[in-house]
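From the shared-data thread, chain only:
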Amino acid sequence: MEDTVRAFEEGNAEAIAFVGETLGPLFLQDPKTGDAGAALRALADLEVAAAAAEWPFAEEAEALSDLGLMKEGLAPGIDDEDLVWEYRRLFIGPGPKPMPPWGSVYLDRECVVFGTSTLALRAWMREQGIERLADDKTPEDHLGLMLVLMAWIARNRPEVLDDYLRLHLFTWSEHFLDGLAKAAQHPFYEGLARLTNASLEGIRKDRALEVVYPRFYR
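Structure, as tokens:
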């Protein structure tokens, strides 16, 4: 029985790692200048129905719709100017971002990056001996970085995964991703936001996590 439980937990952790490693870089990498070209080309060539049937944690109908939007958005090519400029509008600037990708913008009373929730995540990582995934100038609570970190923790420190999800990621991810899906003006990023949200909610339910949702200041 213990071996069966261990095998199930390992499979569950691998599925969580897949979600983080697949989706996280798409929030972090500029389609034209970043390192996600191979992932974008794979999504452009995706057999959507087959992928939706296998996608972990999200309902198949939801995954089918969201992956379909992502593939539709990539149909003109991964260097398409509309795709590139939408990424920059949403995540880079220089104009105001409709939904900034950092948790403290929503959780901190002053709506700033490197807010108190960022510092709490940094302190938690230090306590757990988990190294930063980016340089000191990049806030740790960027949604893309947090998805990649979720994958790393699932594989390497699964005993602290639930605390990471419950205390630091799930507290704000749904609020951000709901807003991002509404703000997106390109099908790829609408689909990405919706699929990420559905996947994280599926993980929360799968692990039976009770999350205390804070007040959002934005």
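The first helix runs from residue 2 to 28.
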